[in-house]
Amino acid sequence: MHAIPIHLLSGFLGSGKTTLLNQVVDYYKAQDVKVAIIMNELGDVNLDGQFVDQDVPMAEMLSGCICCTIRGDLSMELKELIEEHQPDVVLIESTGAANPMEIIDAITEAALFMRIDLRTIATVVDGPELLARSRRGGKTFKLMQDQIRCATDLIVNKADKLAPEELVEVQQLVRELNAYAPLTVTVRCVVDLGMFDQAAADKTKPVISAAQPSQTGNHVCGANCQHDHEHEHGHDHDHDHDGGPNHSHAHVMALTHYLTGPVDSHAFEALIKRLPKEVYRAKGIVTFSDTNSRFLFQYAYGEVEFIRITPQGTVNDVAVFIGEHFAKDVLERELAELTGANQG
Ligand SMILES: Nc1nc2c(ncn2[C@@H]2O[C@H](COP(=O)(O)OP(=O)(O)OP(=O)(O)O)[C@@H](O)[C@H]2O)c(=O)[nH]1
Questions:
Q1: Which of 234, 219, 230 has its CA nearest to residue 177?
Q2: Are 282 and 271 in contact, with CB atoms under 8 Å apart?
Q3: Which residues form the signal peptide (predicted)?
Q4: Is residue 120 within 8 Å of residue 27, measured between CB atoms?
Q5: How many angstroms separate the CA atoms of 173 and 166, rounded?
Q6: Ligand 1: does its nearest atom lie under 6 Å from the Cβ of 48?
């Protein structure tokens, strides 16, 4: 049996990974390639999965990150997915907070047990956010740098939000970190999807396969990755490799809030717009009392988007917020007040 190609979609929270994933799924479907997906979310619900083709087999790994807290589950999920659905190819979308090095290690471990072949680490870079973070520094910038370093393919996204000189600066930043991976500048991740071709086993790319099973500290990643595989990890933990309490994205937290009823669209939008800057990603499904419709909302770094939807099956109204050290209780109270006011 040939090894099943694995493509990892990496990139910071809200950078455009799901936007890319949907295009890749359509690309495979058009070629009759059977694709399966593993989606990983820090929150308790997989909202992105709602909008991926429902025919595609999908394993959801929720409430943790596959690079640390639920890393051990990845092998099992991959094995079950492959045995049950026998896909031609598997796409893994990690949480934006994940360090790709740790996921690569996890996939390498899985390659001990099954014939898989990590072909691509496509990192979606949020252009404007990288620029902003590069000026501030900090842990998040460090994580973004690691995601860029370890990429085999770089997609610099949200070019529509960058002035020409900013776009040049972003590309320079990215190139300083990873000089070799092909780089494409995109709006909504519209990119030549040839990197995901079944036949395109580019020998210059990192290859972690069943034929080269895990030797932690010895795997190959993006050409410019200067990671010390045994001793350095991009996010904030203290070398506790067992996923215990000391190993976490200490600076990243998620709040999942189930809404108990419809909310007023203006009040909800106002709440989203005044989110503290520590919340850098939010998404969810809401029912608006004043329009009698359900909407998916997406918020990333100050920009909000509402899309009218008709979800399949039973889908709760829910909002997920991801950020650094924000006041969860204050936000919970404000959300509760929205539905409470409406019911009262
Ligand atoms: N302006 C702009 N918005 C974009 C672009 N690409 C994606 N978005 C929007 O950015 C938001 C996040 O996109 P996603 O594809 O869900 O990002 P993601 O990386 O999967 O997000 P997480 O799974 O939360 O990490 C959505 O509202 C998208 O519509 C782009 O090129 N320009």
A1: 234
A2: no
A3: none
A4: no
A5: 10
A6: yes
Query: How far is ligand 1, taken at its centre, from the CA of residue 228, in Å?
Result: 31
Give the amino acid at 173: L
Count of C-beta atoms within a 10 Å radius of residue 140: 24
Kindly give the number of the ligand 1 atom that is closest to the alpha carbon of 187: 31
Which residue in the block uniquely carries the two structure tokens 């040049």? Answer: 168
C-alpha 227 to ligand 1 mean position (Å): 28
**Would you state the pLDDT for residue 21?**
96
Is 157 a pocket residue for ligand 1 (Cβ < 6 Å)?
A: yes
Per-residue confidence (pLDDT) for residue 267, from 0 to 100: 95
| Cβ proximity of 279 and 257 under 8 Å | no
Q: How far apart are CA 21 and CA 36, in angstroms?
A: 11
Per-block average pLDDT, block size 10, for the chain (344 residues)? 86 93 95 93 71 82 71 83 94 85 77 79 95 89 89 95 97 94 96 82 40 33 41 37 38 76 94 89 89 87 86 77 83 91 46
pLDDT of residue 88: 95
Q: What 3-state class would DSSP assign to 254?
A: strand
The predicted pLDDT at position 210 comes to 32
Judged by DSSP in three states, 294 sits in strand
**Residues facing 129 on adjacent strands:** none
Structure-token pair, residue 305: 């988007």
- Phi/psi at 178 (5° precision): -150, 100
Q: What ipTM was estimated for this complex? A: 0.98
The size of the chain, in residues, is 344
